[in-house]
């Protein structure tokens, strides 16, 4: 039911665009070898591994560069990549040298959250197409900068909400739009994991293999802590955005997409708590979020990072409640129910994706990368997750964090997403290290 499995048939060519299969040979006949696109992966320790796996499966695309501020991780991933039979990538510790390389076509961003907007904006301004992991920034103003940069540069920018490229979820979207569930009035979304304590870290000298100054990048400088890198930065406000932007964004994005919604009227966060009290984790690990819309529609998220109890047999997912029936959907398929709660139809993905792991690799990454490349080449007319949509979904998560941090119910402008609270608006943007500002 949870299906924490990796992509099946890794050597197979996976469908592109809207999921229609095409062989590498037939694809090459269309574009030719001279149109091969070159890719640089920035941030290779976590989600970057999923980027490597996805783009190596897109025909006529070659990963040529890896970039990371940790020299040990960079060497390890490059060696692993070559050992799998791929051409050995060139390695770089400073992204700016990559951006000076006009032979590169695409950059993918799988860094910590505080780097996303800076790399995306600078990448587009240097002439590169960008595939950027969610969240698109650590504050809504960064999303606004990315939208402005994309409009001015005309570069292609895909946000890594990979479930938007799921053939099964797109099939459910068509059913919802056709009225199969009637009026969908509520979405319940969730995420469950069993994260352990991060303990008490010490201020210390960073390891020799880590360029700590470059790791901090746009953020104001601070001392290195022993329990921050490579993953626990998620739980520090200086660099991270909490479980809302880390995981809720996926399901909130799917829910509002299926329901045809954008910004809510009100946002509230309840039940926030820290399971492992006394460690350095600065924020909630458990939280219930309510997004209330016009016509009494609501999207709810229940996050439990330290209790992996499943919901409907799934570690993450979306339940749609409608006047004619309901549906449960996750990355690996969906199930329809009648009003009595009886299952009437089940559609399972032919190849599966990881659901709650930190790499999160699977076939959806390949579909999503394929759609991105198809748009670059003019073979598809629209991105499955353009920046305008990514910005709305990221902002929903930021609003949840604002409600949590200000301990208030936010009244939101449904056209801009901005809260009326002056205190919350202080969190709409962030401070930068001088010289590292995000400028569209």
UniProtKB/TrEMBL annotation:
Domain of life where this protein originates: Bacteria
Stretches that traverse the bilayer: none
Protein source organism: Sphingomonas albertensis
Occurrences of domain GFO/IDH/MocA-like oxidoreductase (ranges): 170-327
Pfam families in alphabetical order: GFO_IDH_MocA (PF01408), GFO_IDH_MocA_C3 (PF22725)
Gfo/Idh/MocA-like oxidoreductase N-terminal domain span: 38-160
SUPFAM superfamilies noted in UniProt: Glyceraldehyde-3-phosphate dehydrogenase-like, C-terminal domain (SSF55347), NAD(P)-binding Rossmann-fold domains (SSF51735)
Listed name of the protein: Gfo/Idh/MocA family oxidoreductase
